[in-house]
Amino acid sequence: MRKYNVTGIGNALVDIEFKVTDSFFKENGVEKGLMTLVDEERQNHLMKVIHHAEAKKQAGGSAANSVVALSQFGGKSFYCFRVAKDELGHFYLQDLIDSGVDIALTSTQLQAGVTGKCLVMVTEDSERTMNTFLGITQNFSSQDVHDAAIKDSSYLFIEGYLVTSPNGKEAMLHAKKVAEEAGTKVALTFSDPAMVKYFKANFDDVIGPSVDLLFANEEEAMLYTGKSTLGEAREEMKKAAKHFVITMGKNGAMIYDGDTFIDIEPYPTQAIDSNGAGDMFAGAFLYGITNGHSYAESGKLASMASSRIVSQFGPRLKWHEAKEILGRLHA
């Protein structure tokens, strides 16, 4: 019996969410409605004009959101990441611990630098504008991968955003090798269509002959396979993964269980913010398949959870919401 359902590796960003008016964008030269990568000087300027007392902070990053979700449903997860020895780095450690995620880092082991941050600016029309500075997380490498946790996990979960840097790709390959040698299954998420569009060759290297489980949305699936229809793409995806999930937004999801395709129905909701829906789907699905649920049941749980996420701001459920959704699945 392995200790962890999932060990994840990925970026570590502190999400700082605050409300602004449209005039804030004009005054500070921010392009509304986009996610923009910025340098440290630019983000420091924005940090100075934020009303910090009203800002909401939480540990983020794509794979981090997924392992937190798994933990909220009652699973056991571990996360490998890099933050700096600063105020937000200490905050990140504690927030993961409070979320029930095991980590190897302690506050005394943190290195000098700046912890990555994502400033999430929310306007009255419910639109989110994000400015991200990766900080020390862009140096994530194989040294940050905790081999023992991977060996003691049912699944390794790899965040696709790591594919953009040589050290990140090296960490992905190292973690996958450790997992395969230990009999730990390997799951990968493409993370974003831009990752597939510009780094497909790197993904080919990481996937190798195949992975056990692959998460993609419709656009990512077609970009990766080079096919123009979803029907063609899903057949081609069989060459890259033994099992896979293709999320389709308001149309639900499609799961390949290694033998047949399973259609997962969507759950009607009033969509406010789609950010984090894919992270939640992956975390809930991984919880399901590592805790005795079938692929169909796991897909249903993930669909319910992600529909709840898009009806609110932020990529996390409250603990009682996770328990309520799990109760609906069991019912």
> How many DSSP H or I helices?
12
Order of helices and strands: EEHEHEHEHEEEHEHEHEHHEEEHHH
Write down the Rg: 19 Å
Beta-strand fraction estimate: 15-25%
Contiguous runs where pLDDT drops below 50 for at least 5 residues: none
Main sheet record: 9 strands, mixed
Q: How is this structure best summarized?
A:
The protein has 331 residues and is α/β, with parallel strands linked by helices.
Overall description:
This protein is of the alpha/beta class. The chain has a single domain (4-11, 61-111, 139-330), classed as UDP-N-acetylmuramoyl-L-alanine:D-glutamate ligase, CATH 3.40.1190.20. The protein contains twelve helices and 14 strands. The chain has helices spanning 22-28, 40-49, 62-72, 87-98, 147-151, 166-182, 193-207, 218-225, 230-237, 277-289, 295-309, 319-330, and strands at 4-9, 13-19, 35-37, 56-60, 77-80, 101-102, 116-122, 128-133, 153-159, 185-189, 211-217, 241-247, 253-256, 261-264. Strands 6-5-1-9-10-11-12-13-14 form a nine-stranded mixed sheet, sandwiched between helices. The chain has a five-stranded mixed sheet with strand order 3-8-7-2-4. Helix 6 links the parallel strand 9 (153-159) and strand 10 (185-189). Helix 3 (62-72) packs across helix 10 (277-289), helix 7 (193-207) packs across helix 8 (218-225) and helix 11 (295-309) packs antiparallel against helix 12 (319-330). It is globular and about 55 Å long. The mean pLDDT is 91.
